């Protein structure tokens, strides 16, 4: 004796999947203090970002989706602006900045600090306070 069960399955209905519109993001990196001191080259940093930023998993795929610009050389505040119309994280910009600092052996003197919700700032480590503590001992 054989039992046979027949199951009828409804065909899957295709849902209208709309592409999510990503709000344009704009992140700035203020590198005025190390650039004014002459230890930080903003042109090479801009080129580094241009070469290393990944869009859809590929480098050198910026196109018109992501724009990297350097500004403010005359005003005294030098900043790099990264603007994009794709999903882009602020943390990724910090990661690339740290990678650049490590590559140019500046990571021991500079740190990347969030100055606002959409901006980072390169600051010096407070080495003078550590030197005073060593003198007291």
UniProtKB/TrEMBL annotation:
The keyword Ribonucleoprotein applies. Keywords: Ribonucleoprotein, Ribosomal protein. One of its GO terms (biological process) is cytoplasmic translation. InterPro entries: Ribosomal_eL22, Ribosomal_eL22_sf. The keyword Coiled coil does not apply. GO terms for cellular component: cytoplasm; ribonucleoprotein complex; ribosome. Belongs to the eukaryotic ribosomal protein eL22 family. This is Large ribosomal subunit protein eL22.
